[in-house]
Amino acid sequence: RHVGPLMWICLAHSASYFDSMKISKQEEDSARRYGIFQFSNMEHCSDGCRSSLNICRTQCTNFINDDLRDDIRCVMKIIRADTGFDEWRVYGVNCKGKNLARWIQGCTIVKPWDKWR
């Protein structure tokens, strides 16, 4: 599945406004979400406080720093599953099917994420 830079940029902005230290709590399911991509403590990581599927096999606190390598590896695991980026509701609302070219106007794009595949 192709994962281009526009999808990543839009997801990071929509999930956390590019805040790699963000921790939030969802009202509807009381889940906590961590980091730039807002990983759930019920599905993606473990916070040690509640049962989790822990799809990414890591502690949630590992996602609240500026080293995004583990965050990117976790996103790749999630999008390789059936749901892809649709796992994130904010992606469907803000990114899917939208013209995302505005995110990179005037930028030179390199592809560092290829080494994390």
From TrEMBL:
Residues that span the membrane, as ranges: none
Pfam family for this entry, one: Lys
Glycosyl hydrolases family 22 (GH22) domain location: 56-74
Superkingdom assignment: Eukaryota
Gene3D superfamilies per record: 1.10.530.10
MF terms in GO: lysozyme activity
SMART domains: LYZ1
Alphabetical UniProt keywords: Disulfide bond
Membership in a protein family: Belongs to the glycosyl hydrolase 22 family.
Stated name of the protein: Glycosyl hydrolases family 22 (GH22) domain-containing protein
Native source organism of the sequence: Anolis carolinensis (Green anole)
